[in-house]
Design goal:
Shape: globular
Order of helices and strands: EHHEEHHEEEEHEH
Helix content: 40-55%
Oligomer: single chain
Structural class: alpha+beta
Largest sheet: 6 strands, mixed
């Protein structure tokens, strides 16, 4: 058993966006994936896996995990998005926080003990245990544009 900070990300409303705007979503997903991967590299993270448009990322440092999440949100706000995507509902708006354009991504962070298991097919490690479950639940509990952390992350 080892300690790690785990982060899950997921695009809010991606299924509906794929249906309404497949071309814009395809281009938007490339923008999203590049932003996520650049932020992983910039904060000493390890891309564990992707499932559709969701990422699972591991960090040795809890502060790196939190800064990663904040950096992702900042990078996405500043990204250039396909016009076709921006023309769809919920991808370009003005709210109390100011203008928002592009894909909205939920980010959940939790830290704790994990079990590592080598995937013989990919040669990469996967993470298992309650820490994984809590990080995934934090992502699911927040809204796009937010970074949700557990009390353990705050300690």
């Amino acid at each position: 058993s080892e300690r790690a900070a785990l982060v899950f990300t997921d695009i809010q409303g991606s299924t509906a966006t794929w249906e309404a705007c497949p071309g814009g979503m395809k281009e938007g997903l490339q923008v999203h994936n590049q932003a996520i991967r650049d932020c992983i590299a910039g904060h000493n993270g390890h891309e564990v896996k992707t499932i559709g448009d969701a990422f699972m990322v591991a960090f040795e440092s809890t502060s790196d995990a939190v800064w990663f999440g904040l950096s992702v949100q900042e990078r996405l706000v500043k990204s250039v998005w396909p016009e076709e995507l921006l023309d769809t509902v919920d991808h370009c708006s003005w709210d109390a926080e100011g203008p928002w354009c592009g894909l909205r991504v939920r980010v959940g962070v939790h830290c704790g003990d994990v079990s590592l298991q080598l995937n013989n097919l990919t040669g990469r490690y996967d993470y298992f245990g309650n820490t994984v479950n809590k990080a995934a639940r934090m992502e699911g509990a927040c809204v796009g544009g937010a970074v949700a952390v557990t009390p353990e992350v705050m300690e």
